[in-house]
Design brief:
15 helices, globular, 14% strand, binds pyridoxal-5'-phosphate, 2 domains, Aspartate Aminotransferase, domain 2, alpha/beta, 15 strands, 7-stranded mixed β-sheet, Aspartate Aminotransferase, domain 1, 40% helix, 402 residues
Length: 402
């Protein structure tokens, strides 16, 4: 048996750390609640945030830097650039160049900057619901309009597929200038295939639609699947895409805020940089640099073990749900650490399902409907936590719904 170096079963108490997941009060945080939630005793498996202790080398790098005691303006060192470039080559066979990189404190910030850079007021941006909900406001906050290319849910396989005819129709809209791809897809857990990505890239190129590919979950791929950066598929795609990557989801350092934007085309990069400069968003926090460098330099083994643990959590969830609450279907998971559960058999409306979950089950999940109308009746569960939390969550659901 392979020796495991990291203990993902370990419980780390996060309460009192200002954690959004554990310390935010659902009564205040969730909009329009007209009932009271027992905030003290709720189990939070909503936001995409892990409950594991960080890779030890990240912690050590931060402590070492903190001990220096002087924290002035800081340049990105060569070693950090090398760590990013080598990580993408090693993990995803994506050969990137240092001069292609621009940095932001977050991926949502990057997507906002992308819309500002590539859209004129009134331009249209394609997204694929059900999808990571901040994409909606990324478009609307920046004077652009949404074009919704809804994914098609295959009721037999539980798998979501792309509606290419609709996508092409939308891309042909003369005002369509940008497509925000979520790859792998949050919340439905798809890892897009080469065929799917090539078809999307070709339609975009043929219709002068630029691509922002949010690849935040690209390191979190389940065994048997492979993430392909859409930009890496052809020269045309390379020069039509901003690829957003980060150690934030992979290593659970979202609070440290380091995001990498890979922009090979010089003109696109200049536009993106101009948009960054308009808000003077040109520097990363020095601790973000330290953490990112440590993660991308030392994180391979930790990540491999993490993926196995998440797969174990997913398999456990499938089995235990089948035993305790068989009316709920757990959708296939190809990538991300987000399980997607189908509660439609209970025929509850959005309000009643959410209330049952929050009040009766004392479980805080992300409601399907926030990702798009078509996802009513679904729930998203963040699986990156000790397995005992998943067991507790299923027990609570079973008690509330049976
Ligand atoms: C697909 C996707 N993009 C972006 C983000 C948020 O990234 P950031 O916190 O860096 O803005 C998330 C967080 O869950 C996500 O799932």
């Amino acid at each position: 048996m392979e020796l495991k170096a990291y203990d993902f079963d370990k419980i780390v108490n996060r309460k009192g750390t200002g954690s959004t997941k554990w310390d935010a009060d659902p009564n205040l945080f969730i909009e329009d609640l007209d009932y009271k939630v027992d905030a003290e005793n709720i189990l939070p498996l909503w936001i995409a945030d892990m409950d594991f202790e960080v890779l030890p080398e990240i912690k050590e790098a931060l402590i070492k830097r903190a001990e220096h005691g002087v924290f002035g303006y800081t340049e990105m060192p060569d070693a950090c650039y090398d760590a990013i470039i080598n990580w993408e080559a090693r993990r995803h066979n994506f050969k990137i160049k240092r001069e292609w990189l621009l940095f932001t404190a977050g991926a949502v910030t990057a997507a906002h900057i992308g819309v500002q850079a590539f859209c004129q007021p009134g331009d249209k941006v394609i997204i694929q619901p059900p999808v990571y909900y901040p994409f909606y406001r990324t478009v609307s906050n920046n004077g652009a309009q949404l074009l919704l290319n809804n994914l098609i849910f295959n009721e037999n396989s539980g798998k979501y597929e792309i509606d290419f005819e609709d996508f092409e129709r939308k891309a042909k809209d003369p005002r369509a200038s940008l497509f925000i791809l979520c790859s792998p897809h949050n919340p439905v857990g798809r890892v897009w295939t080469r065929g799917e990505l090539e078809r999307l890239a070709a339609i975009c190129a043929a219709n002068h639609v630029k691509i922002i590919s949010d690849e935040l979950h690209s390191d979190l791929i389940m065994p048997g699947f492979e993430h392909l950066p859409i930009a890496s598929l052809s020269e045309t795609s390379l020069n039509n895409t901003v690829t957003i990557i980060a150690p934030s989801k992979t290593f659970n350092i979202a609070g440290i805020q380091a995001t990498v934007n890979i922009i090979p085309d010089a003109e696109m990069r200049q536009k993106f940089e101009n948009a960054l400069m308009r808000s003077s968003l040109m520097r990363l926090n020095l601790f973000a640099i330290e953490a990112m460098q440590a993660a991308y330099t030392h994180g391979d083994k930790w990540l491999d073990e993490l993926i196995n643990y998440i797969k174990g959590n997913y398999d456990f969830l499938v089995k235990y749900m089948a035993e305790k609450l068989p009316k709920v279907k757990v959708m296939p998971l190809e990538g991300t650490y987000l399980a997607w559960l189908d509660f439609r058999a209970f025929k509850l409306n959005n309000y009643d399902l959410q209330k049952k979950m929050l009040v009766d089950a004392k479980l805080w999940l992300d409601e399907g409907y926030v990702f798009g109308e078509s996802a009513s009746g679904f729930e998203r569960v963040a699986l990156a936590c000790p397995r005992s939390y998943i067991k507790e969550a299923v027990d609570r659901m079973a008690k509330a719904f049976n």
